[in-house]
Design goal:
18 helices, 71% helix, mainly alpha, disordered C terminus
């Protein structure tokens, strides 16, 4: 059952964020905040978190949610690579996320993958569950922000570690070749997970059916389609792919600056103090994140499920703190999270996105094992226990 008063509050929050983005930024930023709200709405209704999907594959050999993520990456790549490659011909200004892969990205991605399993949410997952009313994920978000800020203090150390040159598949083999290569790799992973699931269970789990558009739940396929649209609208609105964690780190820097921390002396912020001193509503990533939280709250209230729980166990708090710190720190040194590095990186044709994917998944394997040892997950029974970790 819907929660009418909270629905009104959530809808008003979306509108106020857009208005403030237009006031302190521009109409373009106001539009970006609405794109963020769409992302939060879709993420909540489709329960489209990377963390649980990876955990189901690792523990239970159930790969449906993981394959939906692969489909999201494939669809986003199909849309974004031509959009970026032919942006001038299309009359728009757009660039991708193409970064070098090296030791820092490998370590940071591993930290992120490990941390997201302890926290129970990734970058986008943390924000949409906060919007959905999770008090535990508020703790995660606070320490996510602090972890990212701490990484900027050490950023020069990580930048000095060995790394490869930035490689763009679109630049190397052309946009169509990059799309074909990406689709082939994603398809191979999908086939592998289907084989693992059939071997473990004899058949694939049925797909979740589509519920109501406004109150949910949504099927994973519809969720993937909506998030692909979010990625496209982000490029059209901001001129670059969807990202999350740089906005969270900026929030940390703005708060630190307000209390007198001399971040202007840190190499990471030395030439970015204009952003730090500006309004929280003057950054594209920041307003998208705020919109995402508000959009998820709107979805939760329409579904009648917004009910924050204030009681948290000691384990809940400690794992949220450690997970948040690891994700925030790891994302900053690895050029992003599951959205900015994996989804947008691969969709931009950057090889660093694939490296991030591999090391974050390895980190998740270790994180899932630790979850089992400290009692966060119930023991698997029978055949599942034999196939799991």
């Amino acid at each position: 059952m819907q929660q009418p008063r909270l629905v009104t509050l959530a809808a008003a929050s979306v509108a106020v964020i857009a208005l403030l983005a237009a006031t302190f930024g521009s109409v373009r930023l106001a539009a970006a905040s609405l794109v963020g709200a769409l992302a939060g709405f879709a993420l909540y209704h489709a329960a489209f978190g990377f963390t649980a999907g990876w955990r189901h594959l690792i523990r239970e050999r159930r790969g449906g949610p993981f394959r939906a993520q692969l489909a999201l990456v494939a669809a986003t790549t199909l849309c974004l690579l031509p959009l970026i490659a032919y942006s001038e011909a299309l009359g728009i200004r757009a660039g991708g996320f193409v970064f070098p892969f090296g030791v820092a990205v490998a370590i940071g991605a591993f930290m992120f993958g490990f941390g997201m399993q302890l926290a129970g949410g990734c970058g986008s997952g943390t924000l949409f569950t906060v919007g959905g009313g999770s008090s535990r994920m508020v703790v995660t978000l606070i320490f996510f922000i602090f972890g990212g800020l701490l990484a900027t203090h050490h950023f020069w150390i990580w930048q000095s570690l060995p790394r490869l040159p930035a490689v763009s598949l679109a630049g190397a083999i052309g946009p169509l070749g990059a799309i074909a290569a990406t689709a082939a790799a994603l398809g191979a992973l999908a086939l592998l997970t289907r084989r693992l699931e059939r071997r473990a269970h004899g058949a694939l789990a049925p797909a979740r059916p589509m519920g109501r558009l406004l109150s949910g739940p949504w099927s994973l396929a519809v969720g993937a389609a909506a998030l692909t649209l979010v990625s496209v609208l982000t490029v059209l609105t901001l001129g670059r792919p969807w990202g999350i964690t740089s906005g969270l780190t900026l929030w940390g820097a703005q708060m630190a600056h307000q209390v007198g921390v001399p971040i202007e002396e840190w190499a990471y912020w030395r030439f970015a103090m204009g952003q730090v001193e500006a309004s929280i509503f003057a950054s594209g990533t920041s307003v998208m994140n705020l919109g995402l939280i508000a959009g998820a709250m709107l979805a939760a209230t329409l579904a009648g499920k917004f009910a924050p729980k204030l009681r948290l166990s000691r384990r809940d708090v400690l794992t949220a703190i450690v997970g948040g710190l690891l994700m925030g720190y790891g994302a900053r040194v690895a050029y992003g999270c599951n959205i900015g590095a994996l989804l947008s990186g691969i969709a931009s044709g950057s090889l660093h996105g694939w490296g991030w994917f591999a090391f974050a998944f390895i980190g998740s394997i270790f994180g899932v094992r630790l979850r089992g040892r400290i009692g966060m997950d119930a023991p698997l029974q029978g055949r599942k226990a034999a196939m799991g970790t």
